[in-house]
Amino acid sequence: MKITMAHGSGGRATSQLITGIFEKNFNNDILSRMEDSAVVAGSSRLAVTTDSFVVNPLFFPGGDIGKLSVCGTVNDLLMSGACPKYLTCGFILEEGADSEELEKIAASMAQTAREAGVTIVAGDTKVIEGSGGIYINTAGVGFVPEGVQISASLCEEGDAVLVSGNLGDHHAAILSARMEITNSIVSDCAPLGEMVRSMQEAGVRIKAMRDVTRGGLATVLHEFAAASDCCVELTQSCLPVSDQVKGFCGLLGLDPLYMGNEGKMTAVVAGEDAELALSCMQKSKYGEAAAIIGHISGKERGKVLLTTPLGGIRVITELIGEGLPRIC
Amino acid sequence: MKITMAHGSGGRATSQLITGIFEKNFNNDILSRMEDSAVVAGSSRLAVTTDSFVVNPLFFPGGDIGKLSVCGTVNDLLMSGACPKYLTCGFILEEGADSEELEKIAASMAQTAREAGVTIVAGDTKVIEGSGGIYINTAGVGFVPEGVQISASLCEEGDAVLVSGNLGDHHAAILSARMEITNSIVSDCAPLGEMVRSMQEAGVRIKAMRDVTRGGLATVLHEFAAASDCCVELTQSCLPVSDQVKGFCGLLGLDPLYMGNEGKMTAVVAGEDAELALSCMQKSKYGEAAAIIGHISGKERGKVLLTTPLGGIRVITELIGEGLPRIC
């Protein structure tokens, strides 16, 4: 079935779409109450975030826009030290969107939400003119435990910098799909709750965390360097990149440091906790290629420096020019 | 300036857009931290909701998509008895969107948020192909005070039904703008916090509340009748409709009972509190035309009945067929 403007009218077609696709897949007591707002248990400190997803194509090796829309928002909550609890989702559908694709996307969201331990508590659907596009906004609410303080501004000299796995996978997968290049690159799109909990439970002193998305690792580390007025020193040989992505980047002249992932995080932790953090990451479901990639120093404040295999020092600038739009 | 795909790349153009338009207008400490999630004070019971806004045209008499996107979500929180606290906003911009229009919309959101007492704590911007459209998702978090229980399922025989003002204004304003009909009809788009607080502070026993939006009053009252397994009896002569909207509806064969508002609510309150609720509404900024329009009975459970001026009884069905899409 093709989506028509009638599905966005608020009338019977809208109800049928909601009942037939969203309620069926997201089925839970809170959502089924169908009130204007969901009333849910709270906590004294909340993390709140939002992200819209416009990825093209909707389905790609390793995921789809639905999985992405849950992972992206769940990971943003986790990076503030919060335990993700509730998601809202707003669908904007273009006329002509395929309801079977929409159902696959909803099922994928539901499955990812279950894995991530979050409940979809509120939703909304609108239809616009267009040519079959599907866009999703998710907003998330998480609980921040007492005492947890994680911020880009808390990095200190001596801290270690880790990344949870290979860089550039999602970006390279989307680009391959869009350029119709056949290869074995798969998006790393994944929720990182297990990994973060593992570090928290082991007592790792985490200073800052970010998921590595649009703009890549370089952009995140620049934010850390600026917010903490410190220097991030990286060792190039420690940066994990898969052979396939390395080859793909070589071919197209891309730098994995600027490429987006959707299931990778970077963490700055107390220097003495580096090995503990590494072992937590590596034992986690999506962290086997995790690595300690550098440390925080006072060398050149506000900058990110990379030591090359030949011993040279390269200043890593922010993303100059433009990345690839619609990768998330 | 026209929005280009580069504004959605996550690179420098995106930052400039965020800093130049959103940060400037939404300026607050929480948002300015620019972390992945906002960490804010919480409460033991939360209301959570989301809504996307795709109204066409973007600017209309009485409001614009920005004002609408704040009012819609704030009102949904209020209707659950919550005090609205935080909003997130996700912009999806089509290529070619006008940055000056976007700035006007952001300024309008900021002003409405101030009036409604909510803080915009997180945001996101994406760009898609298209022809200049602007779409906004807002999600909202509110605090629900202990003891407050408001739900469509709590209506009881003897309760009174009120509406806070004239029906159909927003719908008629959008339709007029779209059909390029010149008249004096203005959208009623407004946040209803003052009105709800006034009733709560006066001790009105509120059973159920809903803002009257897509689908109109008939749709909301049907939800009450179904959820509470009761009969909603209305008196046609008590339904407030402005002369202009009455004339407009007569001309086009529309029924104000099915038309959307964006600054009106209906409330079911204990019968003895009807006059108190009415006086609270009428004293509020957006409630001067409020009226007691009917009561809850056990007559025909699950139905909405309307007594006509001639004493006949009309069964008010749900919205059959389709309303006007893209009114919100």
From TrEMBL, chains A, B:
TM spans (from-to): none
All copies of domain PurM-like C-terminal, residue ranges: 156-304
Domain PurM-like N-terminal: 35-144
UniProt superkingdom: Bacteria
Swiss-Prot/TrEMBL GO biological process terms: protein maturation
PANTHER family listed in its UniProt record: CARBAMOYL DEHYDRATASE HYPE, HYDROGENASE ISOENZYMES FORMATION PROTEIN HYPE
Protein family according to the UniProt entry: Belongs to the HypE family.
Protein name from the UniProt record: Hydrogenase expression/formation protein HypE
Organism: Eisenbergiella tayi
